[in-house]
């Protein structure tokens, strides 16, 4: 698949957004997420202020899965096309960060609620395995991009395990509070969760777009450099039949 088939010019034109707008949007989403989390959402009757940790824990847990799925799609496309545009490692690093943050915030929430920072239940263990998969992909990436891509695609099996672990096994984690039939979370507590998720999703999407733009620019620059090199050393026929080198 050639770069032209991916329409880089269209992508570059559609993603040419002023930096002030991006920074302003990110600051707005961050301010709204903090406002809803600290001042709008009420304290939980049983958990007290400890419940505010969930306004970060739940969104970063969602992000760890969303980023992994996006990275797996990217890895599959690279294996399918071998196109260098899909040689992106940012998703693995970002996903590892969100997964680590999920484990850390879960530990801080669990300490006063369960009496311990860590419990080897199905949900926690499957998320920890996801973190190991991210780390493994980072290590494999230094050896072979193809190997890292295959590893990421195989690791997709952990995603449904994370999702349905609370239904398949008896765990300390409660069953899913959000489904296609609705949610059991009160609106005043759901809004800060969604606000933080939107904030994380916006910033992560920006990093993905920025990395893609930089890759396209590097391809265009290398192509331009190759053309200049060919033009510089090409042979130009002279009227007498002999040739001379253009330099």
Automatic annotation (TrEMBL):
<feature type="transmembrane region" description="Helical">
    <location>
        <begin position="189"/>
        <end position="210"/>
    </location>
</feature>
<keyword id="KW-0812">Transmembrane</keyword>
<feature type="transmembrane region" description="Helical">
    <location>
        <begin position="147"/>
        <end position="169"/>
    </location>
</feature>
<keyword id="KW-1133">Transmembrane helix</keyword>
<keyword id="KW-0496">Mitochondrion</keyword>
<dbReference type="GO" id="GO:0031966">
    <property type="term" value="C:mitochondrial membrane"/>
</dbReference>
<feature type="transmembrane region" description="Helical">
    <location>
        <begin position="122"/>
        <end position="140"/>
    </location>
</feature>
<dbReference type="Pfam" id="PF01578">
    <property type="entry name" value="Cytochrom_C_asm"/>
</dbReference>
<feature type="transmembrane region" description="Helical">
    <location>
        <begin position="92"/>
        <end position="110"/>
    </location>
</feature>
<keyword id="KW-0472">Membrane</keyword>
<feature type="transmembrane region" description="Helical">
    <location>
        <begin position="21"/>
        <end position="40"/>
    </location>
</feature>
<dbReference type="GO" id="GO:0005886">
    <property type="term" value="C:plasma membrane"/>
</dbReference>
<dbReference type="GO" id="GO:0017004">
    <property type="term" value="P:cytochrome complex assembly"/>
</dbReference>
<dbReference type="GO" id="GO:0020037">
    <property type="term" value="F:heme binding"/>
</dbReference>
<feature type="domain" description="Cytochrome c assembly protein">
    <location>
        <begin position="7"/>
        <end position="173"/>
    </location>
</feature>
<dbReference type="GO" id="GO:0015232">
    <property type="term" value="F:heme transmembrane transporter activity"/>
</dbReference>
<feature type="transmembrane region" description="Helical">
    <location>
        <begin position="60"/>
        <end position="80"/>
    </location>
</feature>
<dbReference type="InterPro" id="IPR045062">
    <property type="entry name" value="Cyt_c_biogenesis_CcsA/CcmC"/>
</dbReference>
<protein>
    <recommendedName>
        <fullName>Putative cytochrome c biosynthesis ccmC-like mitochondrial protein</fullName>
    </recommendedName>
</protein>
<comment type="function">
    <text>May be involved in the export of heme to the mitochondrion for the biogenesis of c-type cytochromes.</text>
</comment>
<comment type="similarity">
    <text>Belongs to the CcmC/CycZ/HelC family.</text>
</comment>
<dbReference type="InterPro" id="IPR003557">
    <property type="entry name" value="Cyt_c_biogenesis_CcmC"/>
</dbReference>
<dbReference type="InterPro" id="IPR002541">
    <property type="entry name" value="Cyt_c_assembly"/>
</dbReference>
<keyword id="KW-0201">Cytochrome c-type biogenesis</keyword>
């Amino acid at each position: 698949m050639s770069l032209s088939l991916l329409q880089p010019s269209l992508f570059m034109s559609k993603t040419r957004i002023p930096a002030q707008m991006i920074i302003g949007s990110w600051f707005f989403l961050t301010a709204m997420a903090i406002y809803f989390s600290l001042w709008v959402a009420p304290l939980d009757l049983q958990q007290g202020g400890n419940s505010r940790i969930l306004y970060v824990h739940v969104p970063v847990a969602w992000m760890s899965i969303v980023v992994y799925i996006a990275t797996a799609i990217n890895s599959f496309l690279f294996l399918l096309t071998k196109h260098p545009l899909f040689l992106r490692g940012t998703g693995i690093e970002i996903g590892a960060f969100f997964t680590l943050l999920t484990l850390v915030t879960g530990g801080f929430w669990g300490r006063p609620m369960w009496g311990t920072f860590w419990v080897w239940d199905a949900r926690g263990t499957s998320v920890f395995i996801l973190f190991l998969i991210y780390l493994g992909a980072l290590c494999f990436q230094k050896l072979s991009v193809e190997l890292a891509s295959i590893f990421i695609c195989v690791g997709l099996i952990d995603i449904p395990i994370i999702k349905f672990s609370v239904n398949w096994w008896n765990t300390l984690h409660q069953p899913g509070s959000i489904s296609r039939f609705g949610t059991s979370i009160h609106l005043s507590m759901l809004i800060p969760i969604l606000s933080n998720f939107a904030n994380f999703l916006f910033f992560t999407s920006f990093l993905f777009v920025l990395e893609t733009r930089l890759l396209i620019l590097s391809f265009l620059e290398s192509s331009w450099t190759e053309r200049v090199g060919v033009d510089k050393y090409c042979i130009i026929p002279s009227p007498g039949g002999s040739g001379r080198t253009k330099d």
